[in-house]
TrEMBL record:
Name of one Pfam family that matches: p450
Cofactor(s) this protein requires: heme
This protein's name: PAH-inducible cytochrome P450 monooxygenase PC-PAH 1
Record pathway: Secondary metabolite biosynthesis
Transmembrane segments: 50-70
Family indicated by similarity: Belongs to the cytochrome P450 family.
SUPFAM superfamilies tied to this protein: Cytochrome P450 (SSF48264)
Keyword Methyltransferase: no
Keyword Ion transport attached: no
Species: Rhodofomes roseus
Keyword annotations: Heme, Iron, Membrane, Metal-binding, Monooxygenase, Oxidoreductase, Transmembrane, Transmembrane helix
């Protein structure tokens, strides 16, 4: 009987939970990187009691749900890697990949563009990199594939009931209210602001070089500088808020976000994974309570959110009157739009107080960490490819000369868009280093997902459509799609910005919003800030390359793409240092200016 076979895994679970409780240390966490199979290593700081209470609750719910969990999935004959554990499936393995994407790339090669994996309790989950399938899930049938309960509730702990949490009509309403803040015209008006922040970063780096003992070998953790820059940008662009992240060494907002993902969702314990896998079967109201539990992630998120919400509340108090006074000017910055929505009479365009605060937290988070990581990975690639870096610099200098000739002080968006090498470099960095490297969707109904390339199942049948049942979770590998040889060519695994200049490139199925990449996702819930990001990246990269050269430091640190909710850059084996990207930074000597 099924209950008999279920007993062994349950014992395994209790045993592991006990091991974890014993090895957890309240005051400091151990970060040594585990082998994927090493289940006993824990990153939990919860006390033993909490783990045990959770275990008991989890076991009770699991027993009640056994029949549901044993439902056979319609795609059980799709090929996929064997599961290492009945209880954990591949969950531990995938959340502890050595470098983000390694497993994705391996399975793509082995199984093609779709394969089957296991979640906790042996539940089937479908992994997809196929362009047509992804287009179907995100666009064609976008509102029938929702964000998962787990994903939404983790987002809720970080931001509140914001756009990353709400679904269906609520999502459509918020998206419609926010859209005007991200129109092309509105975003163009931000360019001077992006340029000012970029210049402040230049001044900081120049100061740092001036006081360095050996300016020729000056190494900076560029990641932390980019985080500060992008925080200043989103604060000012969205809320007219001077965050002071670049100016102040000890900044409240910087501190609130610092290493948040490492300290919360990176390397979840087995108990956490099992606990989360039960959320879809628990009433919404009860799941909300998880945010109040003293677990590692909930505690860390509460700390960040309390700082951010305090600031948002203060900003709303300060700015509401001004926004209302200037209502007739039809301002379209995020703050004005939020205030207007709160005061709207029409329920279709209205936003409640609490929702406003949640959107603000969403933009604070979504608007800075991602862009900063992108700058980080891009400068890393340029540090490795000095030739290309120099090509970009020359192109920028040529456009700069044109701008001066015209009598202008600075680049326009059209000038930035004319820089072919810069844009190709940017797109290539976005392709190889998607910060959100994977997304999960949950099927809202029984359905069949079409494939662009048929696959063979375990029985040798050719399959061009994969049947899924309601509630199935579907893992979209954004990093896998971004490296599909069918779409990007045989050299899809390596840095080659020239691929973007090939005018004969084949047209492929349309999936993503920028360069047909999946980095900003696609369809009805694609990144609302993608155009904002692209202009911001252009503004900052251009400023940096005009002023600095970046290179790999002499000790050649081994950079790891750590899976931690987002993809986090770290020095291999040194997670205690947090996000790291040490690069050698030297000043560019421009001949005309050097004489002055
Ligand atoms: C390199 C930078 C960025 C990357 C790689 C990125 C990536 C993404 C991805 C993959 C999603 C979809 C997430 C999901 O469906 O679960 C998303 C959603 C979102 N992003 Fe971005 N993003 C970036 C920058 C920004 C910026 C600068 C902003 C705001 C100014 C922003 C605001 C949002 C919002 C509000 C959503 C939710 C959209 C919705 O649910 O309709 N992002 N982003
Ligand atoms: C599916 O993706 C989510 C989000 O990245 C991840 O937590 C989960 O482990 C994946 N599922 C499997 C079976 O690996
Ligand atoms: C939002 O709207 C509600 C209801 O009209 C009002 O009570 C509240 O003060 C508004 N909040 C802000 C920050 O303006």
């Amino acid at each position: 009987m099924e209950s008999g076979t279920a007993l062994a895994p349950l014992q395994e679970f209790v045993y592991i939970a006990r091991l974890e409780a014993r090895s957890s240390q309240p005051s400091h966490q151990s970060y040594s990187l585990p082998e994927p199979s090493d289940l006993s290593i824990s990153y939990c700081v919860e006390s033993m009691e909490i783990v045990l209470v959770l275990c008991v609750a989890a076991i009770a719910v699991a027993l009640a749900l056994l029949p549901k969990l044993f439902k056979r999935s319609p795609f059980r004959h799709i090929r996929g890697p064997p599961s290492p554990s009945w209880l954990y499936g591949h969950m531990i393995m995938t959340s502890r990949e050595k470098d983000v994407g390694d497993l994705h790339f391996q399975y793509m090669q082995e199984y093609g563009s779709a394969w089957r994996m296991k979640e906790c309790f042996n539940k089937d989950t479908l992994w997809l990199v196929d362009p047509k399938a992804i287009q179907y899930v995100l666009q064609t049938s976008g509102y029938h594939y929702s964000r998962t309960v787990v994903g939404r509730h983790i987002a809720r702990q970080i931001t509140g009931d914001g756009i990353l949490y709400v679904e269906g009509d609520d999502h459509a309403r918020v998206r419609k209210i926010m859209n005007p803040a991200f129109s092309a015209a509105q975003l163009r008006s931000f360019l001077p602001l992006f340029r000012r922040s970029a210049r402040r970063l230049t001044i900081k780096w120049k100061d740092s070089l001036r006081t360095a003992s050996a300016p020729a070998d000056h190494v900076l953790n560029v990641n932390s500088w980019f985080t500060r820059t992008t925080l200043d940008v989103i604060g000012e662009a969205a809320y007219d808020f001077r965050c002071g992240a670049l100016e102040e060494e000890d900044n409240e907002v910087v501190d609130a976000y610092k290493n948040m993902f490492r300290d919360s969702v990176m390397y979840p314990s087995g108990a956490t994974l099992v606990f989360r896998s039960l959320w879809p079967y628990i009433p919404e109201r009860l799941i909300r309570l998880t945010g109040y539990l003293p677990t590692r992630e909930a505690r860390r998120f509460r700390r960040t959110l309390s700082v951010v919400n305090k600031i948002s509340n203060r900003l709303i108090k300060e700015k509401t009157q001004t926004c209302l006074d200037r209502k007739d000017e039809n301002l379209r910055d995020i703050m004005s739009i939020l205030v207007k929505a709160n005061h709207s009479e029409n329920p279709k365009t209205r936003m409640k107080d609490k929702e406003m605060i949640s959107q603000m937290a969403t933009f604070f988070l979504a608007g800075h960490e991602t862009t900063a990581s992108m700058l980080t990975w891009m400068t890393w690639e340029l540090a490795k490819d000095q030739d290309y870096q120099e090509k970009m610099r020359q192109e920028i200098a040529a456009v700069r000369a044109k701008v001066s000739e015209r009598g202008d002080d600075d680049f326009t968006v059209a000038d930035l868009d004319s820089m072919t090498f810069v844009i190709a470099g940017l797109k290539e960095a976005l392709r190889l280093h998607p910060i959100v490297y994977m997304m999960v969707r949950s099927a809202e109904r029984d359905d069949a997902i079409p494939l662009s390339r048929p696959i063979r199942d375990e029985k040798g049948n050719v399959i061009s459509e994969i049947p899924v049942s309601k509630g199935t979770s579907i893992n979209l590998s954004l990093c896998g799609y971004n490296r599909l040889p069918e779409v990007w060519g045989a050299d899809a695994q390596v840095w080659n910005p020239y691929r973007w200049m090939d005018t004969n490139r084949e047209k492929h199925i349309n999936v993503g919003v920028y360069g047909n990449l999946l980095t900003f996702s696609g369809g009805v819930k694609a990144c609302i800030g993608w155009r904002f990001t692209v202009i911001e990246l252009q503004a900052i990269v251009v400023e940096l390359l005009e002023n600095f050269e970046v290179a790999i430091p002499d000790d050649k640190p081994d950079i790891q793409r750590v899976p931690g909710g987002l993809m986090i850059p770290m020095i291999r084996g040194k997670p205690e240092l947090g996000s790291q990207m040490p690069l050698k930074v030297t000043a560019v000597v421009r001949p005309e200016k050097a004489e002055v």
